[in-house]
Amino acid sequence: MKAVAMPTVSRVAVCGGTHGNELAGVYLVRERLKRRADGTEPVSVVTVMSNPRAVQLCVRYVETDLNRCFTRATLSAPVSETSPYEMIRSQELNALLGPKGSAQAVDLLCDLHNTTANTGLCLITYSDCDWICLHICKHLQREMASTPVRYVHFDIPLNEAYSLDSVGKHGFAMEIGPQPHSVVRSVIFSAMQEGVQLMMDWICQFNSGTLFEGGWVDVYTMVKNIDYPRDSETHVITAAVHPNLQDRDFCLLHPGDPMFLSFSGETLRYKGKEALYPFFINEGAYYEKGIALSLARKRRVEIPSVLVNKH
Amino acid sequence: MSCHTSPYVSKGLLCLVQFHSVRLLGGKQLEEGVKQHYFCIEKIKMALVFLPALARMAVCGGTHGNELSGVYVVQEMERQWKEKGECAWPIPVTTVLSNPRAVKECRRYIEKDMNRCFNRATLSSPITDSSPYEVLRAHELNNLLGPKGSTDAIDLICDLHNTTANMGLTLIHYTTSDWVTLHICKYLQTKLTKVPVRVLVLDVPISDAYSLESVSKHGFSIEVGPQPHGVVRADIYTIMKEAVDLTIDWIHKFSSGMVFEGGDVEAFRFIKSVDYPRDPETRTLTAAIHPQLQDRDFCLLKRGDPLFLSFSGETVKYEEEEPLHPFFINEAAYYEKEIAFHLGKKMMLTIPSVQVQKD
């Protein structure tokens, strides 16, 4: 592939506390705000606590999930005093860091998240051909020795993309697990800090004219979600993720493999025809969304060399 | 060598005791009126104590609505009861979903931590329209399973909890002198081999005891971790279910006349709590549990060992002289209670052999 020239990544946003109980991002944002820059950095970075009310209460959200409020429809809907807090906040963030889809939007938005699932570090985006995001992923994979780093892709068009990271011209959620919600684990905090620092290093090097060689990145594209088995009347769950599947995010799941273990001891198996890669296995916040795990297809994506276009 | 007070001795139920050596607690100031109850028995293992039968037990889950193993153990037990009635278990068992509103919302509590509402003060103050939901519910549960301290109280409450700390299976109790509870602990320790089983005693007088299991005559909490709140893990659920089944099993065997041999039970006594380093103005945390302490519940913490790693990279160390054992390390629900971990002292409790008292 030919080298691709891309515009400078001059404005970056680092957002934490989009979910108020995902604490590594909350404390990282607090640290960054404490050590505010003296203005001599090569990249302009804005650090934002996305959902301050939820952070204060240490809950995922106050009225509605903020990270589902960034579709075009929600961003352009009229708001009043009675609108949900998070809807008002999403429009504020869109004004600050966007507007989504416009030339004024930040060049890169990195949104910090934690999960109870054993995902390691994932960069989650809506594109499988955003060379900036893919190169940042490759850089983290090279430099982070003790943390697995993966690229997860949700194939959703920009208008319907619902999360905060879709506001930037380039963007991703930096998701790190496993960590219980409302808990900060030191190694998870350090991994997130390292991930953000490496991202900033890459951007600085890119902006200074470094050529980043192309290559290959494994991309996991979301195919479908699987819900828990539930009682048909009460809708309560009747099984937990099977011990053979628990904590085995990104390990290939074959038809017939155990998926759930009912509370009365029966094993339920994966009935799909295609072997797929499970992730977000047993994420606490997804019980109410009807998701026990997500399934993805993996494929190798070739990425070109990239170089900054200073014009 | 263990030194403890025994209510059974004072009630004259101690049937056969071989005193190999008896010593008064010389050199210690004893409280007025308590002297005759304190003595050391070095060979208490030879004693056989007859204890009253246990007629009924309660299994309580969802005392904290987001600690899900207990919620689903109770759900499964209710399903078994619907299917088999009283034959579901070899002894009478009452199952209770302690805090249904909190369970529905998958929160620890709605207005107030219910597992702090069972002290005498809260249970005896009158209910008003403005009483917190959990206080109302505590009164209801006290009527259902108590009243606390009375002869009508249920014999045993087994209250099910989860923690984000790496505590394996921990049995938590108020006193060091309840031999029923300690025998159940010993039984679980011998039967459960896949997970560490430890005993934690809080050493609090019963009237000050604030948690649900203090309502019953004998009671303990089964705490299993690590599990995130709002999540149910199959492996953790299985451990908890097995612990409940073994508790029922012990009571059944005990009621049938089996002699349970005495012996030593290793336990940890709560000494104090340690908070996180905090910003003096905002009170937000400035450090997390150090990676070398994280997940090392019940290890021995010595002077100079790392406790916290600040978000800016500094290590805070344990400065005390006395080595102690930390537990509830990084429990999510304790951030607001200003507890990073508890510290405890390891001790050996000696319990006599026991058998059910035949009328």
Automatic annotation (TrEMBL), chain A:
SUPFAM superfamilies: Zn-dependent exopeptidases
Catalysis performed (reactions): an N-acyl-aromatic L-alpha-amino acid + H2O = an aromatic L-alpha-amino acid + a carboxylate; an N-acetyl-L-cysteine-S-conjugate + H2O = an S-substituted L-cysteine + acetate
Free-text remark on how the cofactor is bound: Binds 1 zinc ion per subunit.
Annotated membrane topology: Peripheral membrane protein
Cofactor(s) needed for function: Zn(2+)
EC number: 3.5.1.114
Compartments (UniProt record): Apical cell membrane; Cytoplasm
Domain Succinylglutamate desuccinylase/Aspartoacylase catalytic: 10-202
Protein name, as recorded: N-acyl-aromatic-L-amino acid amidohydrolase
Molecular-function annotations in GO: aminoacylase activity; hydrolase activity, acting on ester bonds; metal ion binding
PANTHER family, per database record: ASPARTOACYLASE, N-ACYL-AROMATIC-L-AMINO ACID AMIDOHYDROLASE (CARBOXYLATE-FORMING)
Major place of residence: membrane
Automatic annotation (TrEMBL), chain B:
Record's keyword annotation contains Magnesium: no
Keyword Magnesium included in the entry's annotation: no
Membrane topology designation: Peripheral membrane protein
Known EC number: 3.5.1.114
Residue ranges of every copy of the Succinylglutamate desuccinylase/Aspartoacylase catalytic domain listed in the record: 55-245
Predominant cellular place of this UniProt entry's protein: membrane
Annotated compartments: Apical cell membrane; Cytoplasm
InterPro entries: AspA/AstE_fam, Aspartoacylase, AstE_AspA_cat, Aste_AspA_hybrid_dom
Family designation: Belongs to the AspA/AstE family. Aspartoacylase subfamily.
HAMAP family found in the cross-reference section: Aspartoacylase
Name of the protein: N-acyl-aromatic-L-amino acid amidohydrolase
Lineage: Eukaryota, Metazoa, Chordata, Craniata, Vertebrata
